[in-house]
Amino acid sequence: MSTGGIATGHAVSPDSGRHWADEGAWEVAEGIHRIPLPLPMDALKAINVYVVQGDDGLTLIDGGWSIPVARELLDTSLRSIGSGFGDIKRFLVTHVHRDHFTLATVLGHEYGADVALGREEQPALELLHRAGRDGLDESPFLAVLRTAGAEEIAQLWAAGPGELPKPVDWAFPDTWLEGDRSFDVGRRRLDAVHTPGHTPGHYVFADQAEGVLFSGDHVLPTITPSIGFTVPPADQPLGQFMASLARVRELPDLRILPAHGPVAPSSYQRVDELLAHHEDRLDLCLASLKERGSATSLVVAKDLGWTRHERAFGELDVFSQGMAAMETKAHLDLLVARGQASAVDLPDGVVYTAS
């Protein structure tokens, strides 16, 4: 759901002066280029991969989705700045989602570049490897949908096209990131800050001397990151996300270099907007519970508006409806943690009641 002033689909990035997803290697600071790579079947259209030049090679923040068109465009874009895949020394991957991780791990293992990923993403990778090796009866997300009271949506998701994960796309990283640490990239120091919420092992990378934040999906300038769309299910993902936003707010005010959307001027402004947005959504969820007495996440989700246009739940496509139900569950679980609601696990899903 958008909370920014400009829609992602129309946003112009100041480094290029063009739509943020337009192809190219756009210089955002001396020695740092932004390369948008396409995301087929994704409303976001592109992911920004950042290239940081150092004395001994390149460090890439995220890698893109491992599909031929993205690989070819990354190759072309690197060549346009006088580099190639063989110059990549390291991938710093913000989180395990396929549009960030899979091309990084493929290229990393082909060319000997170190791939670093948050340790808390290990359970998700292990689950994917078990699925690829043993097969799964169904997507693990279906169980999450059922706890949200969304059995019908789970059935529709199960009937959709599915494919087993390719082991080469989900190879384990060379380096697990644990806690906070720093990386030297030529003259730069990148501070890796653990920011769980969007996923349990999400990291942002701050170049405080340059005044920029490689924010991954944690701080996006025109949309709010999805919360609760992760397996295995995380405990209190929204609470973790909001606490991580507060951690970013403790850093200096930095220019945002996001994974999706245009470069934006102020991490402080955007963090404050995101925190206010989720507090508002929590209030709306609580009001729904008070009016209804008790309800599942799906029922509460139907009471809320979605996207920047405040669309009714029924106007969303089936995939977005499932995402909305899971995100609403994350809000309701935080209300329980705050003592503002209670929850009972029933066969048809978790039922919440306002305290």
UniProtKB/TrEMBL annotation:
<feature type="domain" description="Metallo-beta-lactamase">
    <location>
        <begin position="46"/>
        <end position="260"/>
    </location>
</feature>
<dbReference type="InterPro" id="IPR036866">
    <property type="entry name" value="RibonucZ/Hydroxyglut_hydro"/>
</dbReference>
<dbReference type="InterPro" id="IPR001279">
    <property type="entry name" value="Metallo-B-lactamas"/>
</dbReference>
<protein>
    <submittedName>
        <fullName>Glyoxylase-like metal-dependent hydrolase (Beta-lactamase superfamily II)</fullName>
    </submittedName>
</protein>
<dbReference type="GO" id="GO:0016787">
    <property type="term" value="F:hydrolase activity"/>
</dbReference>
<dbReference type="Pfam" id="PF00753">
    <property type="entry name" value="Lactamase_B"/>
</dbReference>
<keyword id="KW-0378">Hydrolase</keyword>
<dbReference type="InterPro" id="IPR050662">
    <property type="entry name" value="Sec-metab_biosynth-thioest"/>
</dbReference>
